[in-house]
Amino acid sequence: MPKLVLIVEDSDACAETLQIALESLPGLEIRILPSANDAIRAVREAASSDAANEVAAIITDLNMHRAEGLYHEALTLDGFDLIHQLRAEPRFARLPILLISGDTDPRLPTRALQQGANAFFAKPYSPSAVRRKLEQLLCS
User: Fold this and answer.
1) Of 56, 76, 79, 102, which has the maximum CB count within 10 A?
2) Stated pTM of the model
3) Order of strands, edge to edge, in the sheet holding 28-33?
């Protein structure tokens, strides 16, 4: 059964680039989701006893644009919110989460790791570097 990896990204181009980089890894099923809200729902559903397979890892953007008309601002989560909600549940404490951001704050990589991300990549990032880190996390 393939391992499910979620790409949580509101930019189609970024999501597709990551998908292409990961498709050559054997035994993975890649699913792209546009929001942290969707990712939390997918992780919880996949962890249910009747789901085909659980989520093995998440690659998420930090800042995702709000979907106009679909969510109130308070209901739209960012990458840190996604990490916090999943890490709050013991069953997801060890789920590998890779965070990607275009923010230029030099403290962000350290903050990402302190918040519970397993790795941080600044945009523009190397898709092959993300792939290598994902491989490392899935094999450990």
Assistant:
1) 79
2) 0.90
3) 28-33, 3-8, 55-61, 97-101, 119-122
Pairing, β 3-8 against β 97-101: unpaired
Parallel/antiparallel/unpaired status of strands 28-33 and 3-8: parallel
pLDDT tens for the chain, 140 residues: list them. Answer: 788 999 999 899 999 999 999 998 999 999 999 999 999 999 999 888 665 678 999 999 998 865 444 444 445 789 999 999 999 999 999 999 999 999 989 999 999 999 999 999 999 999 999 999 999 999 97
Show the domains of the chain with their CATH numbers. 34-125 (3.40.50.2300)
